[in-house]
Amino acid sequence: MINSSVTDEILADFLREQFVAGIRLASESDLLTLTPLRGNPPSQYVLEFRCKGLAKDERGAIVECDGPWGFGINFPASYLRGGFHPSEVLAYLGPLKNPFHPNLRPPFVCFEVRPATSLSDLVFSIFELVTWSLVSTHDEGLNHEASQWYRNQKDLRTFPIDRRPLKRRALNIAVKSLQPKS
Amino acid sequence: MKRARPRKPEALSTVVVVGLGNIGSQTVDALGRIPGLKRVILVDPDYYSESNLASQRILRRDLNKAKVHVQARRLSEINPGLEVIPVLDSIANVPRGWLRGCVMLTALHSAAARRDACEAAWRMGATVVDGGVDPELGLGRVTVYAPAPDAPCFECSLEEDDYQAMPVRHLCGADAIDDAEVTATNGSPSLGAFVGALAVIEVEKLLAGQLKQSLAGRQLVVDLTHHNQYVTRLDRHSKCRCRFDHAIRDIQPLRGITERSTLSEALRVLRKALSARGNVSLGVDGHEFAKALHCPGCGGAKELLALAERLPRKARLCGTCAGREMIAVGFKKLARINDSVVPSRLLRCSLRQAGVRAGDVLVAGDETREGFFEVSHD
To answer: Rounded to a whole number, what is the distance in Å from the CA of B178 to chain A's nearest CA?
Structure first.
C-alpha cells in the first residue's frame, strides 16, 4: 500500500476507468507514451510527448524542439470533490529545462482543472498546451516573457506549432492483394 | 481562556465551532452557558474587518483581531471554567483526533469549507450541526449530519453542478489568484442570531444524548418572510452521485508516540501495533507529505519532508521572490512514507518537524492490512 492514497472506493473506481481509457489512448497515439505509477489502480502517470513545442536554448534563443516533453499527472484524494490546486494534479517533469510557454514554469503547469476531469481530457489539454493550441496570457501567465512574446506575434497562423493530431485517425480503406497477371 | 491543546477526547463534552461570522459569532453567548459543557474549540482563519460590523456580533474594538481570539475571550468572560481553544486556521488543518466525541457546529459560506468540515467530522464519527442563511429570501436553515451506516452526509445533497462549482484555484498571475475566496453572505445579524440559536438548541440535544429528538438526517428551513417552516428528511445517495465514501475511521490507541517521536520510531511502533512482518508505511489522514516546495514565481525549490500546509508561513516563503509563497507539487507528494521511499536521514526528524501534531490520525499499513492510530498528547 506504499504511496497509495486510494483508501476511498469511489475514487478507486474512477481511477480504474481512467487507467483503461488512458492505456487505450496511448495505444492509439504515435506521439504519447503513458506510464502508470503509484499503486493499483494507479493514481499517478508520467506522460511523454514527442511533438513540436518551444523551448529556450542555452543561449536564450527561442527554438522549436521535438521534445520529449515529460509531464506528471497526480490524482489527489480530493480529485472528484474539488477544492484542489492545479499543482496538486499537474507537473512538468522535463527533461528540457527551459520550456517556453505562457502557462508553463517548471515544475508548474497552469490551466483550470475541474473536479473529476478525465485522464484523457488532461492528456489532450497538456498536448494542446505543448503544441501551443492552448495558450492563456491572462494575468501574464506563469511565464511573463512567453506571454509577451505570444502577444507580439503578428502571424498567429504559425500556431499551433505542431498540427498533428494526438490520436491516429482510423482509415477505412480496403486493401486487396494484387495477383500478378500470368 | 486556556490555549493548551485538548488533553484527550471526552465523549460529548466538546463543541467545535467552525466559522465565526454572521451565524458563528452569534452562537458564542449561548454556548458559553450550556451546563456541563467542558470545552469549546473555535476554528476560523480570518480576522474581523470593518465590513463585519454590520452583520456579526462584534464591537469596533474587535476589528483587525483574529475572530477566534475575540470569541475565545468572550466565552471565557461568560464561563471562566470552560476550556476554550482558539485555532487560527482552516478546519482541514485541525488534527482530526480533536474532533473525536465532539459535536461540530459549522457556520460557513463556502461549500468547499463545509465539505472539509463535514468530512473531517464524519471520519471521526462526530455529528455536525450546519447552519446557513439566505438573506435575500429571508431563509434560515439548520441541518444535522450524524454519521451512521446509511445516514446522509453533507455531500449526499450535492449534484454534479455543485461539484463543478467548487472553487477553482489558479497559479497564473503575479499574486497567484485564488478563486477559492468567496464573498460573505452578509446576512442581517438578526437572521444570523436566529439560525445561531436554532443551531445551539440542536447542539444541546446532541450533548444530552437526545439524537432522536434532534434533526439528525434532516433539515429545518424557516421562511421568516412568510412565517413558514419546512422539515426535510435527507437520504444517503449512492456512490454514483455522492463522491464521498462515508467511511468512519476505527481509530486505535497508540502508546509511546508523541509529536517528539521521530518518524522512524513511529514506523517501528506502528509495525509492532499492526503485527506486520513486511515493510510498514505511514501517512496522516487527510494530508500528504511534500518532498519539496517550489516557487511559482522563479521556479526555485526547497527540499524537505513535511505536511506542507502545516509549515509556518515563514517557512513557505521564497527567499528570492519578494516573499511569494512556495507550493508543493502534488506529483512529488507522498501519501505514505517509509525507509524505502524516503532517505533514512529524513526519517530521523520528529513528527513535529514534519508537521504532524498531537491528535493527528496516522494511517499505517503494509501490503495486507491497514490501521488508524492517533498521535498521543503526552
So the answer is: 9
